[in-house]
């Protein structure tokens, strides 16, 4: 497991009608042929893996994430970090914003260091990314905690855009955050701890952007379609700003992720 110490914590960049609307969101998410994601299965966890091509402990975590991502009640994504680039191989999928997100989580959780591989569960806790038992225990511990995954969200297609509908609920204010994701990426690593290996990365985050704020009322946001085969979006409803992310109140994904 790669451990990176001494980092500077850096910033990333009435009532009846509401009931009817909430019911409509649920029914439409389950039944509409136009839905971009299948929300019929209740979401159990959002898993964010922080990984590096320069970390020899990471390939087992990358493989485990691919397995977990196939579960219908899981949203799983991987962020490539760049703080191991100095040891001999520059990660081809990394961006400073991804390491900044991990460091922001560490600060929010009171941690003094970051490491790879790490999985953050529902925005609440970080665990070793290759330890399935520890991940499952963290998922169980997060159930209902601080409103984790209690808010309804739905994605649909409309006129070349993805429409994000967030239901009414408690826990606001929160931010609506879009992750642009590549479904799968195979990388041949030429140097460093994984020299000579080809590693498959699953649901690789390529960009992270704030779409807007949610205050507790029903709200709608829009994204342009990616236009690229094999790409999609994961959308998070998350407490706290990007520089201090908190619990994930709701999440949804486009089909195929």
UniProtKB/TrEMBL annotation:
Residues 1-35 form the signal peptide. Keywords: Signal. It holds the Pfam family DUF1223. The keyword Signal applies. InterPro entries: DUF1223, Thioredoxin-like_sf. SUPFAM superfamilies: Thioredoxin-like. PANTHER family: LIPOPROTEIN LIPID ATTACHMENT SITE-LIKE PROTEIN, PUTATIVE (DUF1223)-RELATED, PTHR36057. This is DUF1223 domain-containing protein. It comes from Methylocella tundrae.
């Amino acid at each position: 497991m790669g451990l990176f110490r001494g980092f500077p914590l850096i910033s990333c960049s009435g009532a009846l009608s509401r009931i009817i609307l909430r019911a409509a969101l649920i029914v439409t998410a389950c039944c509409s042929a136009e839905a971009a994601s299948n929300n019929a299965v209740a979401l159990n966890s959002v898993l964010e893996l922080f990984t590096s091509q320069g970390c020899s402990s990471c390939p087992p975590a990358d493989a485990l994430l691919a397995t977990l991502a196939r579960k219908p009640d899981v949203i799983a994504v991987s962020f490539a970090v760049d703080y191991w680039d100095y040891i001999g191989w520059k990660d081809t999928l990394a961006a400073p914003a991804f390491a900044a997100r991990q460091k922001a989580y560490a600060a929010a959780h009171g941690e003094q260091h970051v490491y790879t591989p790490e999985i953050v569960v529902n925005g609440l806790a970080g665990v070793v990314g290759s330890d399935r038992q520890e991940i499952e225990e963290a998922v169980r511990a997060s159930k209902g905690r601080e409103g984790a995954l209690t808010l309804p969200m739905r994605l649909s297609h409309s006129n070349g855009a993805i429409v994000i509908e967030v239901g009414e609920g408690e826990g606001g204010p929160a931010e609506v955050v879009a992750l642009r994701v590549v479904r799968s990426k195979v990388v041949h690593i030429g140097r460093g701890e994984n020299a000579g290996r080809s590693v498959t990365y699953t649901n690789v985050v390529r960009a992270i952007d704030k779409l807007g704020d949610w205050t507790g009322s029903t709200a709608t946001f829009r994204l342009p379609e990616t236009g690229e085969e094999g790409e999609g979006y994961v959308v998070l409803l998350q407490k706290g700003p990007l520089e201090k992310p908190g619990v994930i109140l709701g999440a949804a994904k486009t089909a195929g992720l």
